[in-house]
Amino acid sequence: MKHSRLIQLFVVACIFILTSCSDDDAEPAQSKNYVLVHGAWQAPYVWNSVKTNLEKQGNKVTVIELPGHGNDQTPPGEITLDRYKEKIIDVLSTIDGKVILVGHSLGGMIISSVAEAVPEKTEKLVYVAAYLPATGQTLDSLAHTDSDSELGGSGVLIFNNDGVTVDVKQDQIINLFIQDGSSEIQNLLLKNYRSEPLIPFINPVSLTAKNFGVVEKVFIKTLKDHVVSPSLQDRMITSGGVKSIYKINTGHSPFLSQPDSLTALLIKISHN
User: Fold this and answer.
1) In the beta sheet, which residues pair with residue 220?
2) Which CATH superfamily is domain 30-271 in?
3) Less CB within 10 Å around the terminal CB: N or C of the chain?
């Protein structure tokens, strides 16, 4: 009887422990290292909401400030695609383990170059409405194949007399980049607008199957994009060795118009 009583007490204790454990006590999913790279005519601020969302779920997030963007005052004549690449490689050297490298628009050219240089640091490449090149291509050459893009319309791009920067016609900025955003978000983008360094647009990438080719590639397709058209996105997906495709019903800047939805996709991608 004594042994039977002890067994009963043990069972009761186990049940109590199990039932008292809530979901809050569960082990969190393994955290990931995200490195987020903005695109042309933008800056780190565009990732603020996504960064906050990812960090709330226990992830580590680094947002890159490209030379000549945000608060960086590197002269635009000194900025090349390699300069962008080297900036990110320097950041990756300070991060333990592999990263999920996320690039938007122009950022796709950059993260491709980074993966070629340091494939051992890159867990996945995530292209968000981003240019996904083949070796030898430039952003300019890819963009010129995009007849459905509104960025290539007459007079939309303004090539400045300095020969090293390019602008978007003021009355087209909202339509191109954030037509689906709130007025507050649209004003934020206008407030932070800067002329874009031109040279990286015409710098080709050099990619190999041995390095770039072995890194997993994921594409987030923006269905209402006026800059990188859905048709060009489809062609780059087909030719670029993309493993997984996700869709988001936004314009060119989902991190501004639908940051929660974009965060959910990035979390999903990290566990697939």
Assistant:
1) 128, 246
2) Alpha/Beta hydrolase fold, catalytic domain (3.40.50.1820)
3) N
